Amino acid sequence: MKKRFTRREVLVALAGGILGGRAGPLIAGSLPARSNRVISARLRLHTGFDREIAGTLLDRAVARLTGCDDPADAWRSLFSPTDHVSIKVNCLGGSGMSTGAPLVLAVVERLERCGITRNRIIVWDRLGRELKEAGYPLAAGGSDLQVYGTDETGYGGEILENGAVGSLFSRILTERCNKIINMPVLKDHGICGMTFALKNYFGAIHNPNKYHLNRCNPYIGDLNAMPVIRERETLIVGDLSRIQADGGPSFKSAWIVPYGGLIAGRDPVAVDAVALKILEQSRERIGRPGLREKGLFPDYVEAAARTGAGNLEGMEHVELVV
Amino acid sequence: MYMKHATDTTSEIAGDVVDAGTEAMSRRTFITGSAAVLAAVAAGIPLRNARSGEPRTEARYYEKLEHEEVRCLLCPKECRIGDRERGYCGVRENDHGTYYTLVYGEPCALHLDPIEKKPFFHVIPGTSAFSLATVGCNMECKFCQNWQISQSRPEQVETRHIEPDRIVEQASSLHAPSIAYTYGEPTVFIEYMMDIAARARARGIRNVVVTSGYINRKPLLDLCALVDAIKVDLKAFEESYYRDVCSSELRPVLDTITTIREQGVWLEIVYLMVPTLNDDPAKIREMARWLRAHAGADVPVHFSRFFPQYRMKNLPPTPVSSLERAYDICREEGLQFVYVGNVPRHEMENTYCPSCEEIIIHRQGYRVLSLDVIGGKCRFCGAPIPGIWQEG
Hints:
- The complex is a heterodimer of chains A (322) and B (392).
- Chain A is globular.
- Chain A is an alpha/beta fold and 322 residues long.
- Chain A has 11 helices and 13 strands.
- The longest helix of chain A is centred in the last third of the chain and has 18 residues, at 268-285.
- In chain A, the strands form 2 sheets. In chain A, strands 1, 2, 3, 4, 5, 8, 9, 10, 11, 12 and 13 form an 11-stranded mixed sheet that branches.
- Chain A has a single domain (42-321), classed as Rossmann fold, CATH 3.40.50.11440.
- The model of chain A is unreliable at 1-30 (pLDDT under 50).
- In chain A, helix 1 crosses helix 3 and helix 9 (268-285) packs antiparallel against helix 11.
- Helix content of chain B is 21%, strand content 20%.
- Chain B is built from 8 helices and 19 strands.
- Chain B has helices spanning 147-150, 164-173, 190-202, 217-224, 239-246, 251-262, 281-294, 320-332, and strands at 57-58, 62-64, 70-72, 80-81, 92-95, 98-101, 109-114, 128-133, 178-181, 206-211, 229-233, 266-273, 301-305, 338-341, 351-352, 359-364, 367-371, 373-374, 377-378.
- Chain B starts with 56 loop residues before the first strand and ends in a 14-residue tail after the last strand.
- The A-B interface holds A 92, 127, 129, 150-155, 157-159, 161, 166, 189-191, 206-207, 209-210, 212-213, 247-250, 252 and B 1-4, 42, 45-49, 67-69, 79-80, 82-90, 140, 142, 147, 151-153, 155-156, 247, 310-311.
C-alpha cells in the first residue's frame, strides 16, 4: 500500500510499564490468550478528523496490530463474510463527546470490504435516544446499516454472573452478533477516574448503577471477564479524536483536549492501560492534577488483569504518528 | 421475554408459598387480579421510556456541587453524581446540576393485598392495603425476590403515569383503609410516597411502609410525620452480611429503627433467615437484646423463611427448626410478639396475648380466622395489645 503520510513508530512500553511495573499475573482462563499489543495512532498535525483520515489511521493501526502488511488482509484476519458484527459505541456525552461517526463509518466500510453486508452490522448503545443525540440516525430493519439501542431489543431473561457482577445483558450482544467491535471514547470519570474500553460494557447491562461503588472495582474486571463478552470482543477501536480530560463523563467543553487519534487493540486491559497514560498526559497538558492526586486513580484497570479480562504481562504499545 | 417471573411482585416474602386461602393472590393472579390496576413488569415487550412524557420532578434530598455534580442526601450511600449520571438506585438522575427523580408518579405495580402479606400483624388485621411500588432500590440483596423491579431502571419496566390524587382515589374506591408502599424499596420514591401519604391522611386512609430502612435521618423524619406504620427488613445483625450480601450497611438501619420508635410510628421487624449466613443463634440473641433495648419488648418480630432466589440459588430453604429456634431465643429475651413467617399453618403465625397467653389473632397464611383484640385490648383478660386496631 502506498504510504500517504510519513510516520514514526515508537515502541513505548513493555512488560506492564504502563502501570509502573505493578502488572498483575496472567490468569489462565478457559478462553485462549489474545495478543495484548496496543496501537495508538495519531496525526502529527491535528487538522481535522474526517472519515478518510480516520480510515487511514485505522488501516495503519489494524495492520500493525495484526502483523499484516496489507490492511485488507488485516481486516480479513479478524472478520469473515458470515459474521454478524455489533459496534458498541459510547453516546453518553451527546453530540459533544461521543464516539464519532467518521471513525465508525470507516470501520463499517472495512467490514463491508470483508464481505459483510451492511444489514449485518449494528451500531448500538443503551438507548436509541442517546444514539440520536450523538448524531446517529436510527435504523432498524431493511438492508442498510442497523443503528439502534437496547431499548429496541430489551435484555436477555437470565441473570449472568461472574464474581461481584450479576446482570441481564443486551440482546444485541447476546443474540444479534457473534463479534463485537468495542468503540469507546476516552473520558475522565467523576466516580472511577476514567472510562474507555473496559467500562464501555456498562452500557450493555441492565444495572450499571449498581457497579460504581469502590471506583467500579472489582465490577469492571468481573464484567469484562465474562465469556459473553470475551468470546465476542474481536477488536477495540477507541476514538481519540478528542479527549474529555476532566469533568467527565458528560461533555464539558472547558476540558476537551484535541488529540486526533485512535487506539486499536484486542486486549481491553492493555488498551485501557495505554488510554490511562494518554488521559494523564492530557490532564497534565491542561493543568489538571493527576488522577491519583485527585483520588480517582482507576485501579480497576490493573485489577481487571487479575480477573482474566485481559493481560498486562508482556504487553506491547506501539505508537504511530502519521 | 425481557423479564422472567414477572409476577413475583405479589410476594412480600421470599418464596411466597403461604397457603393463604381464598384471599390469597397467587403470583400468577397478579396480572389478572381485579385490583391489579397495572401489571408492571415488561414481560416480552419492547422496552420504552417509562416516564410517560410527563415532566420530571426535582428530587428533594440533595446538594449541588461544583461542575454540575450533585450529592444525593436521601440514603447513607450519599452518591456523588456527575452530569447525566444516576445514583446507585438507578432512579435519580443529574441533569446539568439539577437532580431529578425519574419515578415520581410512575408506579410499576399496584395491587390490593391483605395487610398480613406485608407483613403487618398489628396494623388493622384482616384488612386490605392498596399497595404500590416503583422500580429501583438503594441496596442489592442477593436473595431479592422482586429483583425484576427493584434492580431495574425506569426505562426498562412498563409503567403508567398516575398522580398522587388518583392513587388515593383508587384506594378509596376500593375501600382500602390503608395504602402500602412496598414490593421494592419505597425510599427511592420518597417524593411520590410523601405526596400520596399527605393526601391519604387527609382522607382518613392510613399509610404503611415496607422498607429496608437504609435512609438518612432527615428524609426519615419527614416520612415519619406522614405515615402510620413502618416495617423494617432487618437483614442480619452483622455488618459483614450487609456489606457482602446486600451492598449496604447495618448501622444506619439500626439508627432508622431507633428513630421510628422515637417518632411514635408503629414499627414491625422482619428478619429473612438465610441458612448458614444469618442464622447464628448467638447473633439472633444479640439482636433480640438490642431490639428489646432500642425498639421495646412489644415490637413484633417476624422470622421469615428464605427460598432460593435471584443470585442466591445455591442455598436450600430455611429449615423450619431454625426459625423456631430464633422464635424461642427472642421469647427468652423478653420480646412479646414473635412470629414465624412463610411457613403455612405454623402455630407461630398467631398472636398470643402476653398476659393470658390466649390466641388473640388466629391466622392462616394471609387470612385472619379470628380477631380477639377489642379496642386495643385482649378480649379474654383485657390486657392492652400494642398496635393500630380498627376502631370499635
